Q: What sequence folds into this?
């Protein structure tokens, strides 16, 4: 085990003591923090100079039992693919049998085939082979699109929380063990200070030696603490080259002092702290070895004298790939491998011709260029390393469920967390981030360098109505003119620039035509640039005031960038390299999340995503199979992140009808009471314009002399005013007969004269009759005085109260004060005015009143007779927008950096009415009466608030679990008499599934924020 005395001053005393002290203190803290994890897995110990008695006994036993060829074979690690077919596989098998090779290095293919081959090859080998992969950014480096690709190291270099780097190393280690891999050729410790480096570039943590060292250390610890041998590369430092060593031999002409100061620094540090192996690069470094055309990998002064003796490295030394032109160009067959052994390397990686290599090494032994003692020392090191990797005995990982195990939800969640932490706001002169919808302009997405709509653009749509434009990397004058015509002076333009997709460089093409377009946009509107490519691309963008660096065009990075721009996530990244004076190393503004609804994986917020999905999928299948509803949308959010949002079924039971989308807009029915009317009353209370303890008659003079005049507003909100539940107003407008139809006295099929109140597309009511509706409400008795009775009538009156006090109808007031500024484009009354009909599922085939399919018009008959706008029904919306509205309430009235309601008002309305076991003010709450059927999930806290809707909708927010649950359906189609959804308790069971999937329930302390009336509640049965 490497020493646990952490200090760098003995290594390089010439460096700034203050900076070194801070750096080492932080590193020591991190190591101590991880100390408990050392016992969670078999830790790989990198120092091969110290053996336990058990290790010594095993190494001696195996070594003495081996033939000369078997010993020599341990020093070879050959190439293996899982996609090259039978001939390649036969070649690998032949080399295993004939040369007793000690290791395999896997490249492209599929994970399933790779594991199958690994198990097959291991079964052929008398001593288990050491299996390796280049997994710098995870298995996806070699198995892309099938396994997870984490951010490349340059993006990781932007992250300020190094715990995440450790977590990534630990997760990659888990995946490698599952795939039967023992060695990861990572981390890359090259200090990349050459923007033109063609092979390192995005593979480096950046240009700062301290940042490279700290992150390299954490990555290494994550791997080795979890049983994987890490390999630091490319010793002695490949960061300042402009030649690809795969193609030729790069030359580094720096002095020894410079090499000590920069290139060698991270390697020196990690040697001290336990790195298990090093990879010797193919570089010509005259200051270390003046011989011409002598690669560092074949240099005894570099590998033995510097790395082994001067730096004191006691682990394994791998060569870089020996097929590379940087090493083969100047040496004959087999000579490269023999020279590498003579120079001091232990394992020969990817020999071009293993047969020629065997002969050459034996010749060097005979000639004394390689000593027998030196060769034995190498073999023993390899054997000891194998023992520590558990390769003293063969193991064969199960092939079943491999891909699911590799790409599990927690691994995916970590990728998102890493990209979120890497986002870097280079500058923001106009303070445009977090982005707000302009009051007198629009949001525009300008996509550059990607031909089709990107995940970035798609996620932007979740934060408002955007105009989407696409341009190439070299837009013509005509294209530029056409684009500019669609952009107005008050617009905010979110321009995204995409890399060329190159594997290591990820350069963003910057043509003069493109820069000209950006200048014109910047001059005309407010421009926000997001760069999905390497940060060196920023050098061309110094003149622009707001720039977000996102590092890569990976889909997860695009999603993270969109959320960051709108404030759903904090931005904390710092540039890991210098691109220009205005984009210098460590540049980056830190933002605070402005608490917009974000998106994440369930595991990122403590929810078992697989369990949640399987439960809700089953509920949805059952409900649709039993025709409880033709379709539905279910959404679950926790801690401000939507982690489950899924659409099921179709708009109707016809197989030809439109499939449900998560963006569909549903008739929310009585959810209107809380998502519109109650919010409006809360706002007016906040503004001091309504006193809840005054009677309705104080504000509504038309109630004078009626039994409604003295009704206290607080009581009306809590359904404690004694009102009737509802009045079937429509029945008074039907004609006579067994099957009555709308009377021509009250309706016309086209708008004409006073017949202007739209009930459906082809039914218009006489506006005079609206007064009759009101009069029936005013004249209605109060049969429920002194007791709770749910009532629509109170919310008719509350909507009128909003109108009278504010001067705006309830729909106008809610839109102006909540929906528009929050960017909730789907929350609308009379949605057909702005939303396509085919986005709105129909609610009923009405054969009792409207004699038509009801789609886009409110289902509630009374609200329909009020022109679609009422306090109890009429609001339509999507699951996302409804969730965002309730997230605002969970955040005590704050959303997107703006305070919509005071915390005190939110608390007042979401606290139970005195003595009430179920109702708050306007809001429904968890029913605490054990003698009644539950209205929400048993595990929901007593503070949960929300509402149900007649059409099959529900929304609930739980402050204790920070959980929002939305269920939207059109269970009333084709008939509102179908109440199977209610009898099946589908809405409740869906919510219960969310609680059941919580991995770590919130511990509720006695008396913690639970209201006086909630004290008797059962706070849930989960352990």
A:
């Amino acid at each position: 085990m490497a020493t646990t005395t952490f200090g760098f001053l003995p290594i390089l005393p010439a460096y700034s003591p203050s900076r070194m002290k801070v750096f080492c203190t932080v590193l020591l803290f991190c190591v101590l923090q991880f100390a408990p994890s050392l016992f969670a897995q078999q830790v790989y110990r990198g120092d091969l100079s110290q053996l336990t008695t058990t290790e010594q006994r095993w190494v001696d036993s195996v070594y003495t039992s081996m033939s000369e060829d078997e010993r020599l074979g341990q020093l070879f690690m050959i190439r293996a693919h899982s996609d090259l077919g039978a001939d390649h596989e036969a070649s690998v098998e032949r080399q295993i049998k004939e040369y007793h090779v000690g290791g395999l290095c896997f490249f492209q293919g599929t994970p399933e085939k790779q594991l199958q081959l690994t198990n097959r090859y291991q079964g052929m080998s008398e001593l288990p082979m050491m299996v390796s992969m280049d997994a710098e950014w995870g298995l996806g480096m070699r198995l892309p699109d099938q396994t997870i690709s984490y951010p490349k190291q340059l993006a990781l270099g932007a992250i300020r929380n190094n715990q995440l780097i450790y977590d990534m190393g630990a997760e990659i280690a888990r995946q490698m063990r599952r795939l039967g891999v023992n060695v990861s050729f990572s981390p890359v410790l090259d200090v990349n200070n050459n923007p033109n480096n063609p092979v390192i570039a995005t593979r480096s943590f950046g240009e700062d030696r301290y940042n490279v060292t700290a992150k390299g250390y954490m990555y290494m610890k994550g791997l080795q603490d979890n049983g994987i041998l890490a390999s630091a590369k490319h010793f002695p430092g490949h960061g300042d080259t402009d030649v690809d060593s795969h193609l030729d031999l790069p030359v580094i002409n720096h002095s020894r002092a410079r090499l000590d100061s920069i290139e060698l620094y991270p390697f020196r540090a990690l040697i001290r702290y336990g790195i298990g192996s090093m990879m010797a690069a193919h570089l010509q470094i005259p200051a270390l070895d003046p011989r011409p055309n002598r690669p560092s990998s074949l240099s005894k002064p570099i590998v033995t004298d510097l790395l082994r003796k001067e730096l004191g490295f006691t682990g394994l030394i791998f060569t870089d790939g020996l097929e590379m032109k940087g090493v083969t160009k100047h040496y004959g067959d087999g000579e490269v491998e023999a020279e590498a052994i003579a120079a001091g390397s232990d394992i020969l990686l990817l020999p071009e011709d293993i047969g020629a290599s065997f002969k050459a090494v034996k010749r060097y032994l005979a000639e004394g260029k390689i000593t027998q003692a030196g060769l034995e020392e190498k073999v023993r090191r390899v054997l000891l390393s194998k023992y520590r990797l558990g390769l003293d005995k063969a193991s064969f990982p199960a092939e079943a469920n491999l891909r699911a195990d590799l790409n599990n939800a927690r691994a995916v969640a970590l990728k998102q967390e890493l990209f979120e932490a890497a986002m870097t706001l280079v500058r923001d002169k106009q303070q445009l981030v977090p982005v707000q919808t302009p009051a007198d302009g629009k949001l525009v997405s300008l996509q550059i360098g990607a031909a089709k709509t990107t995940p970035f653009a798609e996620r932007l749509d979740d934060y408002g109505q955007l105009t989407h434009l696409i341009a190439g990397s070299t837009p013509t004058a005509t294209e530029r003119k056409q684009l500019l015509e669609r952009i107005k002076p008050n617009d905010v333009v979110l321009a995204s620039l995409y890399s060329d997709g190159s594997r290591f460089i990820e350069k963003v093409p910057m043509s003069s035509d493109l820069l000209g377009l950006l200048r014109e946009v910047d001059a005309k509107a407010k421009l926000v640039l997001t760069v999905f490519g390497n940060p060196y691309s920023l050098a061309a963008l110094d003149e622009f005031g707001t720039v977000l660096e996102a590092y890569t065009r990976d889909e997860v990075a695009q999603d993270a960038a969109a959320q960051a721009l709108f404030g759903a996530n904090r931005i904390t990244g710092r540039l890991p390299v210098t691109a220009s004076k205005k984009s210098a190393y460590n540049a980056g503004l830190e933002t605070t999340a402005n608490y917009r609804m974000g998106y994440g994986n369930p595991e990122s917020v403590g929810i078992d995503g697989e369990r949640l999905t399987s439960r809700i999928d089953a509920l949805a299948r059952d409900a649709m199979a039993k025709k409880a509803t033709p379709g539905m949308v279910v959404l679950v959010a926790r801690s401000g992140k939507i982690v489950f949002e899924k659409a099921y079924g179709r708009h109707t039971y016809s197989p030809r009808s439109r499939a449900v989308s998560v963006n569909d807009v549903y008739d929310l029915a009585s959810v209107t009471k809380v998502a519109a009317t109650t919010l409006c009353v809360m706002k007016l209370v906040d503004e001091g314009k309504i006193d809840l303890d005054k009677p309705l008659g104080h504000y509504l003079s038309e109630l004078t002399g009626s039994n409604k005049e003295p009704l206290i507003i607080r009581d009306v909100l809590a359904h404690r005013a004694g009102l009737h539940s509802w009045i079937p107003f429509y029945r008074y407008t039907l004609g006579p007969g067994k099957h009555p139809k709308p009377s021509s006295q009250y309706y016309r099929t086209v708008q004409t004269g006073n017949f202007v109140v739209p009930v459906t597309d082809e039914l218009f009511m006489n506006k005079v009759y609206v007064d009759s509706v009101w009069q029936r409400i005013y004249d209605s008795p109060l049969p429920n005085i002194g007791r709770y009775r749910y009532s629509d009538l109170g919310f008719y009156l509350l909507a009128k109260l909003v109108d009278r006090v504010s001067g705006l109808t309830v729909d106008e007031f809610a839109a102006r004060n909540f929906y528009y500024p929050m960017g909730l484009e789907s929350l609308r009354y009379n949605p057909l005015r702005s939303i396509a009909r085919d986005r709105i599922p129909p609610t009923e085939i009405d054969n009792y009143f409207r004699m038509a399919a009801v789609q886009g018009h409110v289902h509630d008959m009374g609200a329909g007779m009020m022109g679609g706008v009422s306090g109890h029904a009429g609001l339509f919306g999507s699951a996302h927008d409804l969730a965002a509205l309730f997230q605002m309430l969970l955040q005590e009235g704050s959303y997107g950096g703006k305070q919509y309601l005071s915390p005190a008002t939110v608390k007042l309305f979401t606290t139970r009415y005195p003595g009430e076991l179920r109702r708050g003010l306007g809001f429904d709450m968890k029913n605490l009466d054990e003698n009644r059927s539950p209205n929400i999930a048993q595990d929901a806290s007593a503070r949960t608030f929300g509402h149900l809707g007649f059409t099959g909708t529900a929304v609930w927010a739980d402050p204790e679990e920070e959980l929002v649950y939305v269920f939207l359906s059109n269970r009333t189609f084709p008939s509102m008499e179908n109440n199977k959804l209610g009898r099946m308790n589908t809405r409740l069971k869906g919510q219960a599934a969310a609680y059941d999937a919580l991995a770590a329930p919130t511990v509720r302390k006695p008396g913690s924020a639970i209201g006086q009336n909630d004290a008797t509640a059962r706070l849930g049965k989960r352990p």
About this structure: Residues 1-26, 28-40, 1000-1023 have pLDDT under 50 and may be disordered. Residues 313 and 669 are 72 Å apart (CA to CA). The first helix runs from residue 17 to 34.
